[in-house]
Amino acid sequence: MQVLLLGGHGKVALYMTPLLLNRAWSVTSVVRNPDHESEILALGKGRKGKLNVLISSLEDVKSVADARKIIDTVTPDYVVWSAGAGGKGGPASTIAIDQEAAKHFMTASFAAPSVSRFLMVSWIGSRRNQPSWMPNDAWAGIMVGKTEKLPTYAAAKLEADEYMTALAAKRKQDPAFAAHPFQAINLRPGILTDEPATRKVELGITAKGRGSVTREDVAIVADQLLARADTDGWFDLVNGDLPVEEAVEKLVTEKIDALNEEDVDAMVKRFFP
Q: What is the structure's pLDDT at 52?
């Protein structure tokens, strides 16, 4: 399999890269700064898969055609969005990357014949309303982030997530795609930390609400979700008590999806009136 990894120098992506390569998958890691190329290529040493680095600024992706050029160059089976402005460049950069470039890559990926899975690394607060399972104090903390700390980021991520969900729903309704299943995987971690992986998580619908999770654990979960043909939906993620493998299996077996209280029809109507 060929994986296009967007935002390849981000901390989660750096953890994810060797995991994907260990599956004997090829990975093309997209980064903006050429100074990071050697650091990323070093992650491929001794791995089963082949690693390439593509120097390209996601802020320059101004259209679906721009995204399609990169996809056509790589012809990936799976696309992973682990990119973001990271607060640099102000609100304009956040909108350009976290919202607009993300949407362009989604549009291009969903239309590309080779692509069958798109994994978005988002965040647990990317939703319009408090879900029934989330404690009030956790939702209050999320609202502080959405309205006071990172309002532009929160709005951009919500726009991208809902667009991805609308695209997936629209595709499932189109008989032309019936023979070509597509997995739209939205991984939604809580507060990110830099501690070593615990390999124990709460995944899918998280009763803890907005707990924390290590970046390495996010990468481990992303790798496992991407490797399966039966993962699709919104999956909240915090550190918890279940080993990752058990949490993923439970997610699939019990058909757990944090999207279940969202108004998907409204998303479809908003983007595709």
A: 97
Below-70 pLDDT ranges, the chain = 85-88
**Residue 254 CB partners (closer than 8 Å, separation 6+):** 204
Rounded-to-integer distance, Cα 115 and Cα 75, Å = 8
Hey, what domains does the chain have and what are their CATH numbers?
A: 2-271 (3.40.50.720)
Region of 44 (left: φ > 0; alpha: ψ -120 to 50; beta: rest) is alpha
Cβ atoms of residues 235 and 187 within 8 Å: yes
User: Does pTM top 0.70 for this prediction?
Assistant: yes
Residue 94, classified by CB atoms within 10 Å of its CB into exposed (0-12), middle (13-18) or buried (19+), is buried
Residue type, 178: A
The per-residue pLDDT for range 215-241, each reduced to its tens digit, is 999 999 999 999 999 999 999 999 999
Q: Rg for the chain (alpha carbons), in Å?
A: 17
